[in-house]
Specification:
Blueprint (H helix, E strand, L loop, with lengths): L1 E4 L6 E4 L3 E3 L2 E3 L5 H6 L8 E7 L5 E6 L8 E7 L1 E8 L10 E7 L4 E5 L3 E7 L4 E7 L9 E2 L29
Antiparallel strand pairs: 1-2, 2-10, 3-4, 5-12, 6-11, 6-13, 7-10, 7-12, 8-9, 8-11
The structure holds dTDP-4-keto-6-deoxyglucose.
DTDP-4-keto-6-deoxyglucose (T46) binds next to strand 5, strand 6 and strand 11.
């Protein structure tokens, strides 16, 4: 497993480094000890699956405030997605900045998003499924969000948005 820093402190692209042979590939996707050696204290306690049949589906930007803030490890297990983390930590030098990773099921990469960041993604092809490993159990009613196009962030989404739920258009301005 290889951890690549991004423009935002604490956000990493995680490369699985699959073992490939004529049968296919085998990869370790998560290991708390390897995360700890990379300086990341992250224990996966809940796993979620997001299925998105239509390319151009946007979910997010979502986050939760303390004490319900969530760290998450997100990967595409089918298809491809433009995945975004936004730094919402007021004391961070990259406050309100964003970074992106293209999650590709074929390369087995992932993005680690620490507490204090918002998360969103835009699927780049039909039938894109994202698997989430969460650092805390789900707390109903704690979800907060900002619009994907909030001028405070200026996120450069790479393609037309074709599917988005109304609630993700109704978030307050940052
Ligand atoms: C997140 C979550 C949701 N739910 C229930 C609540 C709703 O009845 C249903 C769909 O939830 P929601 O519409 O919030 O799902 P998304 O819009 O895909 O939100 C997720 O996608 C963005 C991009 C994220 O980063 C978050 O992990 C999460 O907010 O699943 C659960 O039962 N457990 C959960 O952990």
């Amino acid at each position: 497993m290889r951890f690549a820093a991004t423009d935002i402190a604490g956000v990493f692209e995680v490369h699985a480094e699959p073992h490939v042979d004529p049968r296919g590939a085998f990869a370790r996707l998560y290991c708390p000890d390897e995360f700890a050696r990379a300086g990341i204290d992250f224990t996966s306690v809940q796993i979620n699956l997001s299925t998105n049949p239509t390319g151009g589906t946007l979910r997010g930007l979502h986050f939760q405030d303390p004490p319900f803030a969530e760290a998450k490890l997100v990967r595409a297990v089918r298809g491809k997605a433009f995945d975004v983390a936004v730094d919402l930590r007021p004391d961070s030098p990259t406050f309100r900045q964003w970074t992106s990773v293209v999650l590709d099921s074929r390369s087995m990469n992932a993005i680690f998003i620490p507490e204090g960041c918002a998360h969103g993604f835009l699927t780049l092809e039909d039938d894109t499924d994202l698997l989430y490993q969460m650092g805390r159990a789900y707390e109903p009613g704690q979800a907060r969000g900002y619009r994907y196009d909030d001028p405070a962030f200026g996120i450069g989404w790479p393609k037309e948005i074709r599917v988005i739920r109304d609630a993700d258009l109704e978030w307050p301005a940052a």
